[in-house]
Every structure is written in C-alpha cells, then in structure tokens.
Design a protein that fits this description.
This protein is mainly alpha-helical. Helix content is 69%, strand content 3%. It has a six-stranded mixed beta sheet, sandwiched between helices. The chain is elongated.
C-alpha cells in the first residue's frame, strides 16, 4: 500500500500510512524503508527523512545497499548533499547505483566539480559505469563547460558500447552545445541511428543558445519534415531563436502552431512567447499574451514589468508590480531589479524606499546585485545619503558597488566624495575598470581637480586603459574642464583612433577656452579625414564661434548645416546662434531669429537672449524675455536672478526688490554661488562672505593687503555688481568677499610664489571679480585660470584670454 501511494505520486499518504503502521507495531522491512525513503524524497521532507533514517539504523538496515542508495537520493533531493555523502562514505558495500545516485545528487545541486572528482574515484575503483552514470557525468561536464573532460568521457561512452544509446547521445549533444562546440554536437546528432524529440530539441537549443538562431530554425523545419512532433522544450528553443533574430512573423507562426499542438495554456510556453514578442519589439503582442494567461507566475510578471522599464514606462511598470503583489505572487530577484530600475527611471524615491523595505523583509538585503541596484536607484533619485548607507552596510562589495557609488556621487553633485571613494578603492586594492575611470575623471572635471586628475591619468596608464577610446575621451574632457587645454590636446593627439564623441569633446574644449581659431582648424581636420559629424559636433563648433566672437564664421557654418553636411538644425543650434548674436550686441537680430525658428523656443533659447540683455543692459527686452521664460517655468531661479541683476545694474533697486519678493512668494530657491580651488590634492569650497573656512582670517587679511596695490594700479570696484541698495563702502566690502576672490586669496597664501592658481565657479563670474583678478594677476606675477558656468578665463600679466568678451 505504501509503495502504491509512492508510485502514484501521493507521498504524503504514504508517510501517513507508515506512521499508522508504526503505531500498530507492525515491523517494517527493507522494502518498507525503501518506499518511505522515496516518499520523503518526493516531498523533500528533510526532517521526516532524518526520522526514517534513525528508524533504519534502529532496525538494522543501515548496511542494506538498496536502503543506503535510497537515503543518498533522499538527502540529495532534500538539498543536504553533506548528509548524502556521509551515508555514501559509511556504506560497506556500494553498487553502481550508489555511485550514480551520489554523482547525480552533486549534479542536481550544481556541484559539477565534485561529481567529476567522484567519477574519477569510481574509475579508480574499477566500477563499471552504465547508461545512468554517463547521463549524469555528461550533465556535470555541460554545467561546468568542461570540454576536455567531456571529450574523454565521450571516448569512454564509445568504449563501453553506449555510443548508439539515444539518452547518452542526447546528453553528448547537450554537453557539446553548452561547451560551445556545435560542430561536435552536430557530428553526434548526424551519427545517431535513431533520434527522438529530445535529440532534435537538444540540437535546436544548442544552435539557439550559441547565437546561431537561423540554423536552429532550419533544423526545426527539417524536424517537421521528418514528422517528429515538437515538445514543450522544442517550442521553448525555437521561440528563443525567433527572439534572437527579432523575427516577428516567424514567431507569430510558431505561436499559432503551439496553440494547435495544445500548448496554449502551458505557462512556460506563454512566458517564452512574452519574451519572444518583447525581443521582436512588439510589446502589444506580449501584453496580449500576458493578459490572456489564466495563471501567471513570477517569470510572467517579471518579463512584462521589465519590458515596460526598457520602454521607459516606469510608472506603468510600478503599477503592474502593485497588481502582482495584489495577486500574491512573490517577487524574485529579477522582479526586484526591474522595479528598482523603474523607480530610478522616474526618480520615484518613495516607491524605491518601499521596495528597499520589501527586500529587507524577504531577507535579500545581503544580495550584492540588489544592493548595487539600490545604490543606483537612490543616486538617480537624488538621495546620495540613502545610497551611501546601503554601500556602507554592505559586508561584501564588488567592482559594480564601487562604480555605482562613484557614479552616483558625481551625478548628485558630490564630486569630492567620489574622489575620496576612488582613493579608498586604491587603498583597498580593488581593481578598477573603464567605468571606474570614466566616473572619477568626471568627478575631477566637476571640481577642476587638475592635480588629482593627473594622478588618475597615471592609474589609467598603469591599468593599460589609456588606449580605450571612452577613457581617453574622458581624459580629454577632464583636462579641458580643469583648465589644461594643452594636456587635453596632447591626450587627444596620442589617441590611436577617434570617434565622433572624442572629436566633439576636443572641439568643445577649445570652445570653453575661447580658442575659436583652434576650434575651426580642428573642424577642418575632421572634414578632411571624413570623420562622422553629428549635431553635437556642430553645437560645439557654433559655441566656439560664439565665445570667440567669430560672427561671420558662425553664420557660415549654421547656414551650411543641412545643404553641405546633411544635418537637420536643432533647437540647440538655434540657441548657439542666439547666443552668438546676443553677445555681439545684435539683440534685435537674435529676437528675429527666435521668431522664425522652426521649433518652439525652449528655456535655453530665451535664457541665452536674457543673458545678452544682462551684458548689454537692455532692460526693456529683458522684461519681455523674462516673461516668456516664467510663463513656461515659473520656478526658474536663474531667470529671477538675471532679471534682478539687470535691474540692479540699471539702478532700478525697487524693481530688483520686487523680483526678490516674487521669488520668496513663489518659494523659488536661488542656486548658491560656490567657488572651488584644489590645493595639495584637496578641494576647498568657498561661498560669498564665507565665515566657515578654517583659514578665513588669513584669507581676509590677504585680500585687505591686496586691495591697496590693486587700487594704485588702477582698479576701481564696480559697485554695479552689488545687488543691494547700500552705501558705497558697504558695496566695496561686499565685492571684496565674493567667493572667487576668497578662493584666490586662499591659493596665494597656500602656494609658492609663481604657482599658477586655478579656480572653478558654478555661476558666471561677475564683472568686478573679472576686473579684480586681472589686477591680482599683474601685481602678484601669477597666472590664474578661472572656469565659470560660461567659459574659461586665462589671466596673465593683467590680461584675460577672453579679451573682456564673455
């Protein structure tokens, strides 16, 4: 009765009956124990299995080979391979079934290496392998891609007379396929005297997995011509092949065939159909399959959620995830990764925190992959503190963890933290890759950390990544943004090859430094070499023309965009032209260009014109332009600040005050002005009228010392740049403590005479600071490089490279 229940798949009833048998004091025999042990294995009941094992020992059947084999199988199926091996080692007598069961247990639990070692031991003991042995050990080779061992076992298969055995041949095909040896797999397949559906599915699956999807579909066609009925596995393989080829029509045809063959309700086939349709780009077909499923498992939900994430439909993905939870489907690792990416794509911090809580509740908080996704999600949602907490709490970190944290810091404006993490990485001897260097070089560029950038370049060279086009491009960008256009040019010229991005980066570097002549020469070189040009290249070129006051050249290239270079003009190109015209004082022409442009003017176009109004003091036009900006974006702080500056410079203090009042009423926060300077590999930050820096007393003393010689040399503070209606003395004092001047004074007292100083300002440098730095450079004999939000200024001997045109 017990054996009958086990055979009919009713293991629970078998175990219940065994308990009843024990209560009625009926003595079990070897056959009873074999049946009950099989029942425990069927339901993977480890605790029940242990109790039965204890009774086996008490009843004196521990030495029985059949019982021992059953115990090995039971422990392996319950996931306790150590207990299985313990039983195996204690057996005084072992037959081929004992060895097969132990080897098979290792294979099923993904421990192929141990299975191979045990097989070698079996050979040493001269135990004759059988068909089951070869099936198991070939699966072990396949799981570990052990082609050398697999070929040896293939030879043994032939020696032992199993070369024509269908099951063994099928495993050989599978092994060779998974080891990437499709020629060998096909040779086995072609030499089989008889083939079953498993043989065909194995060779089709092999082709599909090895990137030979066309061959997979050809073999499937041949299979049908030989009237072999496809199985579920066959359809899984051919649908994967259709997905790899993005062959939508073929996929639809196989879909129809699978329905005709009665696989319409099969959940595995349905999941493969969803995956296939998504890979073919038809989210509508995929969603139709999903909606028509009577039951959905975690794979179904994960596939459709991930599809919406990839289509940039993060909100829909999160809505589906909530529905999945309502249907009590437990998410797996893939689902959690998908929804975290969805949160990151739409900056859904609240939902992201809820998913983080769910991950903790599921006990997955130590999963490195999920932790990396959490870091990425928090960074993209702007919460670097949460990202750093996840990073700090990780007991084990991989390279992706470090890269995610560094890139997250850069994205959230914490470049100094990114640099600190990189050097910590170095101390902990974590190997870096190209992504690491891209992140840390961007961090150096953000805060103009030239000295640290040079140290990073040394690490790039050490790692052998200096010829990597992406890393080299970032080096060019870093040096350009750190003020060393010579180093940027040197790296660019040393690159073995250039892509569109690297050409544009170098062009953009020349534009930032106001080197219009060099930019035009480089563009001519691009044209002569026949390099690919895109719209970004022209944005950089037109920006260079604008900053160098190359009005006619800018017009020439703008008008050549479509007819000569075949590039459609974009709103960015029009923004550059508005900037070029506005800087040159052609404000009416700039406004006319906006009126005729084929696109709806965006914020950047209007802000370019508003900046020109600031330079040329055109209050009336500024008012009209500001109105346009605030209609589109009423919280644009830069617009309020620029308009207030224009009013203040024109002496319209009442109007300036009204603008500030409007900002306060609308809760608009102005971006605070900051200046950075790097001294001895450490980045220091200053704000206007700074009181926090530990050397602020010495810094103010240095400025007070400088102001006398500056005035004697002809410096007159330009109080128009004070945005408050106060007395002249207060205005001069306010100007003296701008963040740019504080940073320069700090550099002067902390570096040797003659050392070049380099600072970074996050806003446009004011006119008074620009004039003051020219005088400071002259009286101190120092070269000074200032990068503001607009361009680079190279000061030397009282002259600026921008020639006062910025």
């Amino acid at each position: 009765m017990i054996l009958g229940y086990v055979k009919c798949g009713q293991a629970e009833k078998a175990l219940y009956l065994f308990g009843q048998m024990t209560r009625e004091f009926v003595q079990p025999d070897m056959v009873t124990f074999v049946g009950v042990i099989n029942a425990c294995a069927s339901v993977a009941s480890l605790e029940e299995g242990k109790r039965v094992h204890l009774e086996v020992n008490q009843n004196g059947y521990a030495s029985d080979v059949a019982v021992g084999n059953g115990l090995i199988d039971m422990y392996a199926k319950c996931g306790s391979i150590m207990l299985a091996r313990k039983v195996f080692e204690k057996m005084h007598m072992r037959d081929v079934v004992s060895w097969n069961t132990m080897i098979g247990g290792y294979v099923k639990l993904g421990q192929g290496e141990k299975a191979l070692i045990l097989y070698q031991e079996m050979q040493q003991k001269q135990i004759q392998p059988n068909r089951v042995t070869f099936v198991s050990i070939l699966n072990a080779c396949a799981s570990k891609a052990e082609i050398k061992e697999g070929r040896c076992i293939h030879a043994q298969v032939i020696q032992n007379g199993f070369g024509t055995d269908v099951s063994v041949a099928n495993c050989l095909i599978d092994m060779y396929s998974k080891c990437g040896c499709m020629k060998d797999a096909l040779k086995v397949f072609d030499n089989m005297p008889t083939r079953d559906v498993v043989s065909w599915s194995a060779i089709i699956g092999g082709y599909a997995k090895s990137g030979q999807a066309k061959q997979a579909l050809e073999v499937f066609k041949q299979m049908k011509e030989e009237y072999i009925q496809a199985s579920r596995v066959t359809y899984v393989c051919v649908l994967n092949a259709c997905g790899s080829l993005a062959s939508l029509e073929e996929g639809r045809r196989i879909h129809a065939e699978a329905i005709q063959r009665g696989f319409e309700l099969d959940i595995t086939i349905r999941n493969c159909l969803i995956d296939m349709y998504l890979k073919c780009g038809s989210i509508e077909d995929a969603y139709r399959v999903f909606e028509n499923m009577l039951t959905r498992d975690v794979v179904s939900w994960s596939s459709i959620i991930l599809a919406h994430v990839r289509c940039r439909q993060g909100r829909v993905a999160l809505k589906l995830f909530r529905k999945m939870q309502e249907e009590d489907v437990q998410p797996d690792r893939i689902t959690l990764v998908a929804v975290l990416n969805a949160c990151a794509s739409i900056a859904a911090l609240k939902e992201g925190r809820l998913i983080h809580k769910l991950i903790t509740q599921m006990g997955c908080e130590s999963d490195i992959f999920l932790c990396n996704c959490l870091i990425d999600m928090y960074a993209k949602c702007g919460s670097i503190e949460d990202a750093y907490k996840v990073f700090n709490d990780m007991k084990v970190r991989d390279l992706v963890s470090w890269n995610s944290m560094i890139l997250g810091c850069v994205k959230c404006g914490h470049a100094e933290k990114a640099l600190m993490l990189f050097w910590q990485m170095q101390r902990e001897m974590v190997p870096q890759n190209s992504i690491t260097f891209v992140g840390v070089l961007n961090a150096c560029a953000r805060v103009a950390a030239l000295e640290q950038g040079k140290r990073v370049q040394a690490e790039v060279t050490k790692s052998g990544l200096d010829s990597n086009v992406f890393v080299a491009g970032c080096l060019v960008d870093m040096f350009a943004k750190c003020g060393s256009i010579e180093d940027a040019s040197r790296v660019f010229k040393s690159m073995p090859s250039h892509d569109t991005v690297s050409w544009s980066t170098m062009l953009g570097g020349y534009a930032m430094h106001g080197l219009g002549k060099e930019a035009l020469q480089l563009f001519e070189q691009i044209s002569q070499e026949g390099a690919e040009i895109d719209n970004i290249t022209f944005v950089c070129l037109l920006s260079a023309c604008s900053r160098a006051d190359f009005n006619s050249e800018g017009h020439h290239y703008f008008e050549s965009l479509s007819p000569v270079y075949g590039i459609l003009s974009t709103v960015e190109h029009y923004t550059c032209m508005v900037d070029l015209l506005g800087r040159s004082g052609y404000l009416n022409e700039a406004q006319d260009l906006i009126n005729i442009m084929p696109y709806q003017p965006d914020i950047f176009v209007w802000m370019a014109l508003l900046s020109a109004c600031r330079v040329h003091g055109n209050v009336q036009l500024a008012e009209r332009v500001a109105k346009q900006v605030l209609q589109v974006d009423p919280e644009n702080a830069s617009c309020y600040v620029l308009l207030a500056n224009i009013y203040s410079a024109a002496g319209k203090w009442g109007s300036a005050v009204k603008v500030h009042q409007m900002m306060n009423e609308r809760l608009v926060n102005k971006k605070p002005g900051r200046t950075w300077i790097e001294i001895n590999n450490k980045v220091h930050t200053f704000v206007v009228d700074d009181h926090e820096h530990p050397q602020i007393v010495e810094i103010r003393a240095e400025l007070n010392r400088l102001i006398g010689p500056m005035k004697q040399a002809g410096y007159v503070p330009d109080v128009n740049f004070v945005l408050h209606d106060v007395d002249e003395e207060a205005k001069e004092s306010s100007l003296l403590h701008h963040s740019e001047k504080l940073a320069i004074a700090f550099g002067l007292i902390n570096t040797a005479p003659g050392t070049q100083l380099q600072i970074l300002k996050n806003l446009r440098v004011c006119g008074d600071c620009h004039r003051a730095i020219k005088f400071i450079s002259k009286i101190t004999g120092r070269a000074m490089v200032v990068r503001d939000s607009n361009r680079f200024h190279h000061f030397k001997d009282g002259i600026c490279s921008c020639m006062d045109y910025w």
